[in-house]
Amino acid sequence: MPYTLHRGDALTVLKSFPDESVDSVITDPPYNSGGRTSSDRTARTARAKYTSGDARHDLANFPGENRDQRSYRSWLTELLTEAYRASREHAVVMVFSDWRQEPTTSDALQMAGWTWSGTIPWIKPASRPRKGGPKQDSEFILWGVKGSLDKTRDLYLPGHFIASQPRKDRVHITQKPVEVMQQLVQVCPPGGTVLDPFTGSGSTGVAALKEGRNFVGVELSEHYAGIAEERLRGVLTQDDFELAGPEE
């Protein structure tokens, strides 16, 4: 089986992983962001923070959205430290963030031992304009490396992405486009293992399998773990699915 999906708390599960057992870490943690006041950031649900009032869906909430910024940095640092330990030399980490949490995310990444190597904007064309100022149309992917970047591979990725969140068959509040994730997972060597400690609906895993990588994920929500499992199995049962061969 080219994937394993653990159900439980990400930090607890990661502590059970062997040293140097994964080849890249690509994840979209709960941002614990949103709102101008502490109560707005810590008391509101994920749906209240990240879904507009006129949204035409009723997607399930997800846990982990009640930390203030200081506890978020402490928690994320510990988690990325465990991910660092579990990663092989030259492994790349990619962590999604919004603009509010970008500075503290870069702090956590570096305190965990990773060499911060850049920030990749993800621009969403379907975002709404904001009266009186620039619209918030971007999320950010902070990336780093364990040790040094492997430059022996003939790999060149974009410095930014332009793609809207999925609309058709959307199953998660903060679901990422598979076409973007398929490019990101290429930082993992062919046949290697991509780790996502916050699997959500499984988009990173779907992308990894489609690109000929193995996948190991962790998801706390039983609801979303079930959706992720279904999507991952669906990739493997597609009649026309073939694992990608090694890169030339």
Brief overview, please?
Helices cover 30% and strands 21% of the residues.
State the main characteristics.
alpha/beta, eight-stranded mixed sheet, DNA binding, globular, Rossmann fold, 248 residues
The CATH homologous superfamily corresponds to: Vaccinia Virus protein VP39
What structural category do the secondary elements indicate? alpha/beta
The average pLDDT value, as a whole number, equals 86
Biggest sheet: strands side by side, in what order? 1-8-7-2-3-5-4-6
In total, the number of strands is 8
Distance between the amino and carboxyl termini: 25 Å
The radius of gyration computed from the alpha-carbon positions, rounded to a whole number of angstroms, is: 17 Å
> Mind telling me which CATH architecture this is?
3-Layer(aba) Sandwich
EC number: 2.1.1.-
Protein name: Methyltransferase
GO biological process, one term: methylation
Region (Disordered): 25-64
Care to describe what's here?
This protein has eight helices and eight strands. By secondary structure, it is an alpha/beta fold. The protein has one domain (about 5-235): 3-Layer(aba) Sandwich (Rossmann fold). Strand 7 (about 195), helix 7 and strand 8 form a beta-alpha-beta unit. Helix 4 (about 70-85) packs across helix 5 (about 100-110), helix 6 (about 180-185) crosses helix 7 (about 205-210) and helix 7 (about 205-210) packs parallel to helix 8. Belongs to the N(4)/N(6)-methyltransferase family. InterPro entries: DNA_methylase_N4/N6, DNA_methylase_N6_adenine_CS, RM_Methyltransferase, SAM-dependent_MTases_sf. It comes from Streptomyces glebosus.
